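Box 3.1 A note on notation
Throughout this textbook, protein chains are presented in two layers. The first layer is the amino acid sequence; the second is a token string describing backbone geometry. Keep the layers aligned when reading.
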Amino acid sequence: MTLQAINDYEDFAEMRAEIELLFKATKALFGLKDLHIYYRDLAIPRVTMCLYAGSLFMQFCMENGLKADVIIEHLRRKRL
């Protein structure tokens, strides 16, 4: 099982990179780094909606041939 997992690492690494990019996009678009909600039941709906919107952004980028990471970096610079 371990050897099979090693052989499948490239597929896993690609999926993980996409997930990391989704989190990066969501944080850049919606400022989740500065989330000031201290109660889990209040934070979950906000984070869920932000992740949903972030995934729509990622889908838009993929369908239109846009580089999401370039857009994210541009947005980050604008926020600073």
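The mean pLDDT is 82. The CA atoms of residues 74 and 80 lie 10 Å apart.
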